[in-house]
Design brief:
mainly alpha, Four Helix Bundle (Hemerythrin (Met), subunit A), two-stranded antiparallel ribbon
């Protein structure tokens, strides 16, 4: 933290802005941030796939709502890394980004249907496994 003497207030030094920021327009700076968000690292891809595997194996062994909520939260944060929040508010013109957005919408629907399956008194293991396989397939398509 540092004290801004001009404004007499304390600020957190969270971002380190480029020194030539004044030369750039705000929109070009935002575009750079969006471009940086568009790419996934190999580590993030592997992390995402391993979380899906973990979710699948945990639910196959002992399907419960607690396990589902735990892994759904992780999955949602990983999905947010794939699709920047800016796509949700702006019209998507790039065809690949449209496909990505639609796939994530389908994954969210699959997660919702998995939740419904797990809330039934008698859990249908076959249906749960099918839904998890669908989610895995959708993620593989996204990550290619």
């Amino acid at each position: 933290m540092f004290i801004d003497k001009n404004k007499n207030r304390i600020r957190n030094n969270v971002f380190s802005f480029p020194k030539d920021l004044k030369k750039k327009s705000v929109s070009s700076f935002q575009k750079e941030l969006i471009l940086k968000q568009d790419t996934l690292s190999e580590i993030e891809i592997h992390e995402l796939m391993s979380e899906i595997e973990n979710l699948g194996s945990c639910l196959d062994q002992a399907p419960s709502l607690e396990i589902f909520y735990k892994y759904r939260a992780k999955l949602k944060t990983l999905l947010e890394k794939i699709i920047p929040h800016t796509f949700k508010t702006k019209v998507i013109t790039d065809l690949k980004k449209q496909k990505l957005f639609l796939s994530i919408e389908v994954i969210n629907k699959e997660l919702a249907s998995l939740l419904v399956l797990l809330q039934n008194k008698e859990i249908n293991h076959l249906k749960c496994s099918e839904t998890i396989l669908n989610i895995k397939g959708l993620l593989v398509n996204i990550l290619q």
